[in-house]
TrEMBL record:
Entry's family note: Belongs to the helicase family. RecG subfamily.
UniProt keyword annotations, A-Z: ATP-binding, DNA damage, DNA recombination, DNA repair, DNA-binding, Helicase, Hydrolase, Isomerase, Nucleotide-binding
SUPFAM superfamilies (alphabetical): Nucleic acid-binding proteins, P-loop containing nucleoside triphosphate hydrolases
Enzyme class: isomerase
The Helicase C-terminal domain, residue ranges: 449-609
Name assigned to this protein: ATP-dependent DNA helicase RecG
Function per UniProt: Plays a critical role in recombination and DNA repair. Helps process Holliday junction intermediates to mature products by catalyzing branch migration. Has replication fork regression activity, unwinds stalled or blocked replication forks to make a HJ that can be resolved. Has a DNA unwinding activity characteristic of a DNA helicase with 3'-5' polarity.
Length: 678
């Protein structure tokens, strides 16, 4: 019985030498061969001459009707010309400097030529010739990535042979329902059309099926693994739906659609007996805090405690302040656990936590340390770059807690990367800002034209604005970095004297010095804050509406986006000026991207495209798998859909018992994965 797992040696004309040659392309089995897809296609579909425009690239197919004429001129230059009849018309074809084509052209022969159309002279300056013999009448030909061991033609004919011999044993993996739903081809047809398509449309349709199938199978494996992990017991948080709804209704605004969606995703997880492990992504200001508040509230209606962990004490106390307001008048009792408590306060707080009198505990890492005993911890939320690691979860487990975990981040991770690399986490995305926000206007100021920026800044200051000015980044040297900032500070102080006050902030200043400058900036004593990139984190002054970044091309897109996020936090229109003279195409693209969008996810996505996914996380760790057909950037939509479909399938009870799913069950078994989860 034939099987796709047969060795390529089963094919005619494939001996040990050829087996070894094919192995250099990672082709061992018939399946490897059949899924060795073309990297592109040569399109020899003839152009309709009546619609061809001058200088257009066209393809003509016809019969040679004149003796070819070969002439040399100048040093190593030559020309080959002949006439072909295309339908009723005779067209002159000219090749320059391809003398070897002489052998292939002779009277009466059928040829296909590609090149540039000269409409006035009705002639084509061709650069590619295909004789009918070499393209076997196939006008749309697959081109494979090959190496020095295997020739294009050899590979093509082996694939054809393999397809002819094995087409009847190609199992379709995707269930009928999914194929119907997305109008996908069955696998046999898909493989056929990938290799031997009639035309571009067929090839495209086949690629669409292949891409979906590849992503779906990848997600199926990933999620099968995840489901095994999830079987570890978690907490079933049976919150009171009505109370949660009431709480949401009491908020001073309507949730955005994106917020509603992620609230649903989180609440569904809370109810499940598994341990939630979810990443909540959203740009600065997208309203993550309120989503977290809803999750906390839900948890508390179920009689559990919630903890919110922030990276610094300052951020923890900011959260505590915000949330105390949100929860005023409810039965949420907030406790802030920080190092600045007295011993007595600390002891009392711990007691209240242990008794369950405090049901929302906010703090830093201290929250999971040993002296903190919870009454019944149901949910842990971590904020900003504070990925809750396996170790910390283990720490809690040892204390007998299996809380659901929600990690919030304002650093957009391109969806592609999130989906492919955070395989162990579910990802929720708030991809929409609350209505009425004025998008920050971004302008790229070329080169050394800093005066334009300064005039604009003076204008803004005169109408009461405040501004950040970020000095050039010198990564190699902190002292140069500081020097730059200091120079710029002196320059601007002189420029704006005596009307406006300029302040300076950099990494070499002490904590107290920084705080003092920040306070002056916040209360308006300073109008312009010159700074190194330290403003990136934690600085919040809603009255600041101008961000000027010097030598902006030295920063990566992610960092530029974070810097820009310092403005646009109030009611007034905000502006970001990028002063840059990028020398590379990528540098220019970065500036254009910043001007074009304020959406952090689009910025991150562009970053991914410009740098390549490997670059972002370092080749080895990126974890972005090598897909054969699918491109996780270009085919993102398909990846997302496939992911959902795989999840839905595995979530169906007894999914592995249905006939239609048996090929997938076999597929998972072949990858040594379990198929039954309950
Ligand atoms: P993030 O934590 O994502 O940076 P926040 O949750 O702090 O964002 O929200 C930013 C601001 O927007 C807050 O003042 C918040 O009250 C407000 N906000 C949040 N959601 C909405 C909404 N749906 N409509 C209007 N304003 C909102
Ligand atoms: Mg926030």
């Amino acid at each position: 019985m034939k099987s796709l797992q047969d060795s390529v040696a089963e094919l005619k004309g494939v001996g040990p030498k050829r087996v070894a040659d094919l192995a250099t392309l990672n082709i061992d089995t018939i399946e490897d061969l059949l899924t060795y897809y073309p990297s592109r296609y040569d399109d020899f579909t003839p152009t309709d001459l009546s619609t061809a425009k001058d200088k257009q690239k066209i393809t003509l197919k016809g019969q040679i009707v004149s003796e070819p004429l070969f002439t040399r001129f100048g040093y190593r230059r030559n020309r080959l010309s002949f006439r072909i009849r295309v339908g009723q018309q005779v067209v002159m074809v000219t090749f320059f400097n391809q003398p070897y084509l002489k052998k292939q052209v002779e009277m009466d022969r059928q040829v296909t030529v590609m090149g540039k159309w000269d409409a006035r002279r009705q002639q084509i300056t061709a650069n590619k010739l295909v004789t009918t013999a070499s393209n076997k009448g196939n006008e749309y030909g697959a081109i494979y990535p090959v190496n020095k061991h295997i020739r294009q033609g050899t590979l093509r004919s082996l694939i054809r042979q393999a397809f002819e011999d094995y087409q009847n044993v190609i199992p379709t993996l995707l269930p009928q329902s999914l194929r119907d739903h997305y109008r996908l081809m069955d696998r046999r047809q898909m493989i056929k059309e990938m290799h031997f398509p009639e035309d571009a449309a067929m090839a495209k349709a086949a690629r669409r099926t292949a891409t979906y199938e590849e992503f779906f199978l990848f997600q199926l494996r990933l999620q099968a693994i995840r489901r095994v992990h999830q079987r570890e017991d978690g907490t079933r948080i049976l919150y009171h739906n009505d109370e949660v709804k009431q709480f949401i209704a009491g908020l001073p605004f309507e949730l955005t659609d994106a917020q509603k969606r992620v609230v649903n995703e989180i609440c569904r997880d809370l109810r499940l007996p598994y341990q939630m492990n979810r990443l909540l992504q959203g740009d600065v200001g997208s309203g993550k805090t309120v989503v977290a508040a809803i999750a906390i509230y839900a948890t508390i209606t179920a009689g559990y405690q919630a903890a919110l962990m922030a990276p610094t004490e300052i951020l923890a106390s900011q959260h505590a302040e915000k949330l105390a307001k949100v929860f005023a008048g409810t039965h949420v009792h907030v406790g802030l656990l920080t190092g600045s408590l007295t011993t007595k306060q600390h002891r009392e707080l711990l007691t209240a936590i242990k008794r369950g009198d405090i049901n929302l505990i906010i703090g830093t890492h201290a929250l999971i340390q040993n002296d903190v005993q919870y009454a019944n911890l149901g949910l842990v939320i971590t904020d900003e770059q504070h990925r809750f690691g396996v170790n910390q979860r283990q720490q809690l487990r040892e204390k007998g807690e299996h809380p659901d975990v929600l990690a919030m981040t304002a650093t957009p991770i391109p969806r592609t990367l999130a989906i492919t690399t955070y395989g162990e986490m579910d990802v929720s995305v708030i991809d929409q800002l609350p209505a009425g926000r004025k998008p920050i206007q971004t302008k790229w100021i070329q080169g050394k034209n800093t005066n334009e920026a300064l005039h604009f800044l003076r204008d803004q200051l005169s109408s009461g604005a405040q501004a950040y000015v970020v000095s050039p980044l010198i990564e190699e040297s902190e002292s140069l970095d500081v020097q730059n900032a200091t120079d710029l500070y002196q320059q601007l102080a002189a420029y704006f004297e005596p009307n406006y006050q300029v302040g300076l902030l950099h990494g070499r200043m002490s904590g107290d010095e920084k705080d003092a400058v920040m306070d002056q900036f916040k209360n308006g004593q300073i109008q312009v804050l010159v700074s190194t990139t330290v403003v990136e984190v934690g600085v919040d002054n809603p009255n600041a509406t101008v961000m000027i970044i010097y030598d902006a091309d030295r920063f990566g897109l992610a960092q530029l986006h974070q810097l820009r996020g310092r403005v646009g936090r109030g009611q007034r229109q905000s502006y970001c000026l990028l002063i840059a003279d990028p020398k590379t195409p990528e540098g220019k693209e970065r500036m254009k991207t910043m001007v074009a969008t304020t959406d952090g996810f689009q910025v991150a996505q562009k970053d991914l495209e410009l740098r390549g996914s490997g670059d972002i996380l370092g080749d080895k760790q990126s974890g972005v798998p090598d897909f054969k057909v699918g491109d996780p950037v270009g085919d993102l939509k398909i990846l997302q859909i496939a992911r959902e479909d795989a999840a839905n399938l595995l979530a169906e009870p007894h999914w592995d018992a249905y006939d239609d799913n048996q090929p997938l069950v076999l597929y998972l078994k072949r990858h040594q994965l379990e198929t039954h989860f309950d």
